[in-house]
Recover the amino acids of this structure.
């Protein structure tokens, strides 16, 4: 392994102050060497994009040292360049002009500027599309412009921020191979690549090393080396073994019930985030698992079977685990008898099982208790919001309340009126729906 | 007309009704009104206006003068917009003050400032220059707020990744402005410029025809020409004047705004092709022409390249972020302190001036405000009564739209204030003539906003919903209650907010007129302001103007803003 390019020592990213402090990144230690392709992998909200922005100098860490070639980084990292998830091309500039702009700012004069830009576009295979505007191109081709522009400034460190996740499957696949070709054959002056991803297969396919992160707080939980030679065969058993191992790290292991559920807001201990998933997706997952002979199943296989990405899959698995519908160990997911019952039940029976399980969640318990203590058993949204803002970061609070309301509505535990923003306890006695008069 | 310009800043879920920024805004308005009223003490008591010639051969020159005033005010507005918007978007502290200030300023009835501005400027400058400056200031204040708001909005909505890209590729401020900020805001700037320009006509005409008592502030221009023609009951001249006005508006529309809109389509951010992009015959003509091509290749492009090079060399993006500038901070604090002390002193003097006003006059002011409010309400009700059915008919019926839309657009393009003297000519001899004329003027100042918005709302009703309503066999009344009214509600409110502002503005011109050599007036806060101006009662002028501003701002906050939030949250179809 070559010399060290980038070093992170005890990096923290903390938002807010005093009572409302939230740790986005906790004690990050990381080395990046010349010649390395490293992937940062983790569920959404684990701070991997924040980490990438700290490394690129777009954001300043609240604590800790970021060293580039042993010198502390101050401001924008002049040796780094980024390829963005949403391409970040200037829509009013054509393909050539987008690349030219990066070269112009770098101080490269005409005619060298145009020659260089055309050469770069040629290398990524965009020959003949110089005068096209981004909106005329497919996602894959837009991202090629993104790559060409990033490479125009000849960065030592190329940062990729989920560059393939906004593309369709086929374009993503071909662009990955093309990137790999440029990289492994040394066609670009880049010394090292750092890629943020939430796609496990993609990371195993491209990277030499995977750094696995987890959320709440965002931290590194494991490192996984991949020493398979390029090009890697996705169907090979070695490849699948790596995928399975990374899934096992990410999916974790079902803990004791107490640890799994966390504590209610305001109490000592840690308030658990609810995974923000739709109930119909959860039902779909359980119905799928219920179809198999064996109760145990490899998690990573579900990705293809259900046609969803690993991020979504892991959130669903987390939710199912929270409700006690499945248990997870060593990269395997096992449906519990309760899960089977739920999958096979009628709509109304499902709602009852769901309600009884949801009542166990400390956050839901807390909300229902607040409601039943309140006058008329109802509370305004912003009352709940204020109470929860001590527990969750500002951008999370609303989505957590939304999840609570969605689950509560499905389980017929509570109702919500969007107009008045009032959450109220469901009063059950009469179940016949009153027809609305028009 | 674009119906989706945003009038209020609605980013917070629970929005407070009043903030510190509002208070500061009101204080600044009081202070600037006081300064104006104080200066007015030195204003001459007699001002003789220009001689307006009714010969049609003068019309082109008058048109040039009128358009010139608009252009000067517009240039000023753009300059202000770019600086103010930039400050508000990039400095958090400034934003907390500047945005509420903008919010109040854009709901203030600007025309109520006209007398104060005219008097104070004519105390300082020679007559002719004072009136010119006042008209430009007035048009500026009518054009600038929505432009500034649009620019600020577009700056803060630039996608995060585009910002990050401009940082990581080290674009300096100039290159960023030229390649990111300006293109990103271009469509919104062009649309808002067009709206501002249309609104500006209303104020230009009001400024050109303003006379009270022995003070003739008229300016040579199309508005004054029409005013003079109506004064002399010269129907031929009225015809010529109207023709020239309409022609000017149409020429500007066809040769300036349509081409600009067609051109700005290239700056849209959506990554999909538009099915029917805006077109302009004039734009097609010049953009395909050889001269334009030559100009852009040989002249514009080298100049732009040269500026870029100089800017990049002179102001490269610093490698390290700037460290804290303490000395800068101190001078800022000192300046703020001096400014605040000045404001406090002026506020104190304004208070003294207001205390001088006897109780009876305050009662008069409030009764006047109520009567004007009544007139505004009547005008709005009449406007609603006819624009909603017609607007829905046009919006849901393609054939009717094709036939009526152009007629409506041309009619709406005539600024109501220009027509006012003409209307007065017809109704002045009826009983309650000015009362009727005042309501008609308010109506003309309000109805178009409503109509355009209703049309936009009705044409945005999804086809599926219309089919569903048919399948459910709703009666016409049910159809209106369940489908049409909720669907057009957000548009109706947007239109009504602008319309109500327009009606209040109209009251200044409408309630007091020098016509045919005699002064006509009806009770109302607008005529109080005019009387105070005519008789040099500056404390009353200050009090009445201030009351009007407060009443309108309060109505905006307590009624329109709430309705707007309701419309945004509950009735917006996404």
């Amino acid at each position: 392994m070559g010399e060290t390019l980038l070093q992170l020592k005890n990096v923290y990213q903390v938002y807010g102050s005093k009572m409302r402090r939230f740790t986005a990144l906790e004690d990050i230690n990381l080395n990046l060497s010349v010649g390395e392709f490293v992937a940062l992998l983790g569920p959404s909200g684990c701070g991997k994009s924040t980490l990438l922005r700290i490394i690129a100098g777009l954001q300043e860490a609240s604590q800790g040292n970021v060293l580039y070639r042993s010198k502390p980084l101050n401001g924008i990292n002049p040796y780094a360049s980024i390829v963005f998830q949403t391409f970040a091309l200037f829509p009013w500039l054509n393909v050539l002009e987008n690349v030219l702009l990066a070269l112009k700012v770098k101080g490269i004069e005409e005619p060298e500027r145009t020659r260089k830009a055309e050469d770069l576009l040629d290398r990524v295979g965009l020959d003949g599309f110089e005068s096209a505007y981004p909106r005329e191109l497919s996602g894959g081709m837009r991202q090629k412009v993104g790559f060409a522009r990033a490479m125009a400034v000849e960065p030592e460190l190329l940062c990729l921020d989920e560059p393939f996740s906004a593309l369709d499957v086929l374009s993503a696949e071909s662009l990955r191979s093309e990137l790999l070709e440029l990289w492994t054959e040394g066609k670009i002056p880049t010394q090292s690549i750092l890629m943020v991803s939430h796609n496990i297969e993609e990371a195993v396919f491209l990277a030499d090393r995977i750094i696995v992160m987890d959320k709440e707080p965002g931290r590194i939980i494991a490192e996984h080396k991949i020493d398979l030679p390029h090009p890697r065969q996705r169907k090979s058993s070695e490849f699948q073994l790596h995928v399975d191992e990374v899934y096992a790290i990410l999916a974790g292991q079902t803990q004791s019930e107490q640890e799994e559920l966390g504590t209610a807001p305001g109490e000592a201990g840690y308030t658990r985030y609810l995974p923000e998933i739709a109930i119909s997706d959860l039902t779909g997952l359980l119905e799928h698992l219920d179809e198999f002979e064996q109760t145990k199943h490899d998690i990573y296989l579900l990705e293809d079977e259900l046609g969803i990405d690993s991020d979504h899959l892991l959130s669903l698995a987390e939710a199912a685990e929270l409700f006690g519908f499945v248990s997870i160990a060593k990269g395997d997911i096992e449906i519990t008898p309760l899960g089977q019952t739920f999958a096979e039940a009628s709509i109304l029976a499902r709602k009852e099982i769901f309600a009884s399980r949801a009542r166990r969640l400390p956050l839901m318990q807390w909300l229902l208790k607040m409601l039943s203590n309140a006058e008329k058993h109802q509370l305004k949204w912003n009352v709940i919001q204020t109470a929860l803002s001590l527990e969750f970061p500002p951008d999370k609070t609303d989505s957590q309340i939304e999840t609570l309301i969605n689950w509560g509505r499905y389980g017929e535990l509570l109702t919500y009126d969007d107009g008045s923003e009032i959450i109220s306890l469901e009063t059950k006695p009469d179940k016949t729906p009153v027809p609305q008069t028009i | 007309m674009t119906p989706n310009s945003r009038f209020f800043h609605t980013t917070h879920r629970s929005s407070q009704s009043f903030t510190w920024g509002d208070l500061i805004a009101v204080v600044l308005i009081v202070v600037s009104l006081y300064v104006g009223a104080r200066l007015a003490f030195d204003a001459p008591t007699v001002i003789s206006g220009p001689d307006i010639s009714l010969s049609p051969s003068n019309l082109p020159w008058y048109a040039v003068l009128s358009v010139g005033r608009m252009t000067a005010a517009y240039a000023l507005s753009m300059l202000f917009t770019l600086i103010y918007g930039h400050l508000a978007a990039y400095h958090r502290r400034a934003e907390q003050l500047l945005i509420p200030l903008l919010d109040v300023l854009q709901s203030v009835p600007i025309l109520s400032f006209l007398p104060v501005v005219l008097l104070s400027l004519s105390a300082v400058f020679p007559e002719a220059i004072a009136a010119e400056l006042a008209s430009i200031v007035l048009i500026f204040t009518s054009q600038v707020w929505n432009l500034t708001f649009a620019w600020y909005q577009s700056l803060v909505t630039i996608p995060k990744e585009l910002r990050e890209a401009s940082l990581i590729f080290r674009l300096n401020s100039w290159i960023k402005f030229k390649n990111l900020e300006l293109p990103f805001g271009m469509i919104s700037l062009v649309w808002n410029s067009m709206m501002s320009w249309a609104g500006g006509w209303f104020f230009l005409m009001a400024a050109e025809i303003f006379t009270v008592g022995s003070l003739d502030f008229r300016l040579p221009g199309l508005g004054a020409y029409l005013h003079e023609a109506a004064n002399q009951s010269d129907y031929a001249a009225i015809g010529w004047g109207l023709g020239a006005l309409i022609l000017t508006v149409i020429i500007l529309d066809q040769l300036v705004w349509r081409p600009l809109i067609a051109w700005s389509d290239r700056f849209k951010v959506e990554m999909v092709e538009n099915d029917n992009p805006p077109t302009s015959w004039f734009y097609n003509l010049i953009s395909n022409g050889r001269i334009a091509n030559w100009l852009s290749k040989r002249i514009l492009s080298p100049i732009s390249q040269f500026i870029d090079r100089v800017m990049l060399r002179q102001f490269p993006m610093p490698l390290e972020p700037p460290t804290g500038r303490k000395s800068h901070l101190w001078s800022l604090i000192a300046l703020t302190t001096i400014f605040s002390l000045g404001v406090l002193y002026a506020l104190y003097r304004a208070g003294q001036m207001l205390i001088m006003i006897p109780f009876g006059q305050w009662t008069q002011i409030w009764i006047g405000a109520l009567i004007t409010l009544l007139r505004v309400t009547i005008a709005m009700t009449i406007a609603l009564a006819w624009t909603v059915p017609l607007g829905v008919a046009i919006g849901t019926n393609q054939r009717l739209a094709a036939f009526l839309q152009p007629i409506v657009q041309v009619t709406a393009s005539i600024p109501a204030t220009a027509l006012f003297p003409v209307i007065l000519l017809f109704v002045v001899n009826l009983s309650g003539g000015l009362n009727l004329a005042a309501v008609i003027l308010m109506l003309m100042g309000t109805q178009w906003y409503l109509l355009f918005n209703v049309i936009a709302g009705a044409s945005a009703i999804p086809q599926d919903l219309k089919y569903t309503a048919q399948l459910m066999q709703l009666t016409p009344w049910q159809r209106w209650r369940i489908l049409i009214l909720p669907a057009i509600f957000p548009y109706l409110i947007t239109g009504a907010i602008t319309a109500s502002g327009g009606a209040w503005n109209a009251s200044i011109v409408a309630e007091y007129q020098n016509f045919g050599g005699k002064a006509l007036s009806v009770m109302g806060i607008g005529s109080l302001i005019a009387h105070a101006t005519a008789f040099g009662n500056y404390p009353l002028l200050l009090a009445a103007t201030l009351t009007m501003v407060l009443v309108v701002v309060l109505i905006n906050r307590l009624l329109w803003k709430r309705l707007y939030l309701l419309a945004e949250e509950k009735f917006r179809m996404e």
